[in-house]
Amino acid sequence: MLACPIAGDLTRAMRLSPLALAPSFAGLTDHPATMAAKATTISHDLASHVARAGLIDIDATVVFQALFFIILMLVLPKLIFQPMLARLDQRTARTDGAKAAAKETRAKADQEAARYEHATAEDKRKALEERAKMRAGAELQAADTVQKARLAANARVEAGIAEQQRVFAVTRGELQNEANALAIQISDKIVRG
User: Which end of the chain is more exposed for a tag (fewer CB within 10 A), N or C?
Assistant: First the structure.
């Protein structure tokens, strides 16, 4: 069994003589130089106790530690490691199942989105075609309405021109008659004198 030599030695040194260092701590309220000298002495005393203690101290605790280690090696796998590994496997299976379900859901969502986009594009194309047809029909109807209005306006203008020409001819005839009548009157007055 491996052990830390320094920690084991310190523990053994303290176990061998726990009060061996107590006289060295007396008077620590002295001058700092004195305190430094006493600390050096204490560290040398501790080092000597550690040196006297052996590196390996084999006693009854080694047997208890070995038995405890063997018992733990037999019991821990069944009590802790196997249930923990089973839980980790369940968790991995659930995670993998959730990932697979998420992938499937994502694929379905992508398919629905593609279908929706296709349907939307088709509806948009149909709406644009219908709008173009309606616009063309409206333009034809507008052109027809403009043509009818133009023809009606031309007919009214021509009727007005014809009416003006008739009025002009009538007025001219009347004026001609009046001018003839005036000319006769003037010539009568000139001749009569």
Answer: C
142 SS3 class: helix
Q: The whole model's pTM is what?
A: 0.34
Quote the CA–CA distance of 187 and 87 in Å, as a whole number. 142
Identify the H or E element spanning 79.
none
pLDDT digits (tens, 9 = 90+) for 86-129: 999 999 999 998 899 999 999 999 999 999 998 899 899 999 99
Domain boundaries, the chain: 1-57
Q: Are 83 and 58 in contact (CB under 8 A)?
A: no
Task: State pLDDT tens for residues 149-191.
Answer: 999 999 999 999 998 988 888 998 888 888 888 888 888 888 8
The residues, ordered by sequence, that sit 6+ positions from 56 with a Cβ below 8 Å of its Cβ are 3
The contacts of residue 20 (CB under 8 Å, 6+ apart) are 45, 49
Q: How far apart, in whole angstroms, are the C-alpha atoms of residue 119 and residue 111? A: 12
